[in-house]
Amino acid sequence: MIITIAHGAGDCAKSIVADNLATLRTLSGSKLILLDNDARHSSLDWSRARRCKADCTPVTVRRVSGKGMQAELENLGFHYQDIVIDAEARDCMGSRSALQAAHVTILVIDLDQLAQLQEQELSKRIQLAQAENPRMRTLVVMSCSDVQAAADKVIRVKDFVSKLDAAELFPYPLFCGGSFHQAYQHGLSVCEYPAAHPMTIKAMQALSSKVFASH
Fold first, then answer.
1. CB of 113 within 8 A of CB of 12?
2. How far is it, in rounded angstroms, from Cα 124 to Cα 95?
3. According to the model, what pLDDT value does residue 41 have?
4. pLDDT of residue 25
5. pLDDT digits (tens, 9 = 90+) for 186-201
6. Enclosing H/E stretch for 86
7. CA dist., res. 127 & res. 50, Å (int)
8. For the chain, which residues score pLDDT lower than 70?
9. Distance (Å, whole) CA 174 – CA 172
10. What is the residue-wise DSSP string for 6-61?
11. pLDDT at residue 68, as a whole number
12. How far apart are the first and last CA of the chain?
């Protein structure tokens, strides 16, 4: 199964969601690889921090370029049960290849950076990907720094999702407080981080179950 984590608004949250999903799926027993296609190498940095933790189950992470994405995916599909892609935020060869190969695409929208949401451009990218890849499911995930997401921002995201074909809004916003980022810096998922907020842990577990429900 190929899961592509794409940028809606809020680049950092995108990579953290990719790393958390990869960890939870690996801990469930899946043979998984996480591909870092982001220009900032965030998932690679996270994996280096994780390797320093002797008591943590390792997550296989590999850097992949845009030009090599399609060939890489074809090859890795023979060796791994699941592939999670931390895709490049901008519209480019790598991000297009990641979308066109995905069984599930997750658009992460940080409500604190909603001004960055370029609805028309993002809608066009998703529509083009769906035309090339009709099997793709699109799941929109909201993140925010407050426990209670602002109602007006949630309404705007719901309106955006309603205009996307075959898209679904994940109902539980991820509370991305300090512990969310601290867990990432330590190479951990929020479910492994003792100081993580219970709501964040519950939402991340629910997201993982939702994404991998049919597999």
1. no
2. 13
3. 87
4. 95
5. 899 999 998 888 888 8
6. strand 82-86
7. 36
8. 8-11, 214-215
9. 6
10. EEEE-HHHHHHHHHHHHHHHHHTT--EEEEE--TT-HHHHHHHHHHT-TTSPP-EE
11. 75
12. 8
What is the rounded CA–CA span in Å between residue 49 and residue 186?
6
Topology given in CATH for the domain delimited by 2-211: Rossmann fold (3.40.50)
pLDDT number for residue 145: 81
80: DSSP letter:
-
Residue 103: both structure tokens together: 């069984």
Q: What b/e string do you get for 11-32 counting C-beta neighbours within 10 Å, with b at 16 or more?
A: bbbbbbbbbbbbbbbbbeeeeb
Q: Can you read off the two tokens belonging to residue 57?
A: 């189950």
Distance CA 160, CA 154 (A): 10
Domain residue spans in the chain? 2-211
**Per-residue confidence (pLDDT) for residue 11, from 0 to 100:** 61
Residue 19 CA to residue 184 CA, distance in Å, equals: 8
